[in-house]
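Cross-check.
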Amino acid sequence: MTPRRPGSSGPARARYGVTIAELAVVLVLIGVIGSTIGLSLVRQQRFYRSATELLRAREGVRDAMELLASDVRGMSVTDTVRLLADSAIEFFANVGSSVVCDYAGGTAVGLPGLSPRQANALTSFVTQPDTGDMAFFHRDSSDGVSEWEGHRIDGFAARPLSSTCPAGSRFGRHADAGADGTGFLLDLFSAPSSRVGTGAPVRFIRRGRYSLYHASDGRWYLGFRRCNAVGPSVCGAIQPLSGPYRGYSTNPGKTGVLFEYFDGSGARLTPGTSPLAIARIDITARTESGQWIGLEGWSSIPSDSATIAIAIRNRSP
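Predicted model, tokenized:
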């Protein structure tokens, strides 16, 4: 029988619970497990942050190479290079091309539109030209010598294709026109010569300067300034393109972005040399993160570097 308490008319009830010792053991185990989980989370966070910084450093190098390679490779040293320095280069970069579709004299030139569905589109832009850029028209002389005639752009705007490339012109067919029936009207500061006619190829170029610069956040970036097309170099505000990179240094082995110039025989040229002598430009970019990272006993600032050699295609013999 269940024992009774004195003065109780019913059976005795058993008491359940934990002792202080048992509670202490549980708390210790929870603390150990929590510390282990917390330490794992910290390590994972550190790993992902370090991996991100490493990838960012490598992306900075790749961005610099991609941005500079296409523009430098296609520039013409005959008349477009304006500044050659160890941390900066200024030149006219090609931003588009087209053909003269309608021209009857004066300063207005009609151009065909963009044809994204045509593999042989007559008009294409890296970025749309506008006021201050230059348009170079190809003209054929009677003595067999081909030339490019340059004119400063006063305005560039989309117009109905019927007005810029009428049906009577040789380039007025729908297959050569913009899919949406839109062409472009090019206004110039001066009229092209009589040797520029319908069908003449047109190149659009923009003067700009790439340089390593010190930003307000204390880091160094590759930046771009748009400059005036004619006359002494006057450039606008700088826009960051990629980075951060190592800071500028007169030591070629330490500076963040380095431009080196070579002639046709491979001899190094000093900054300020005539652009006509340039046959190759080597560009080196060195990135450096602003944060220290640590991985399994290794601690460092993430960095990376790369060098690309670019042969100038449009070089005079």
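The radius of gyration is 34 Å. The longest strand covers residues 146-160. Passed to J.P. for a second look.
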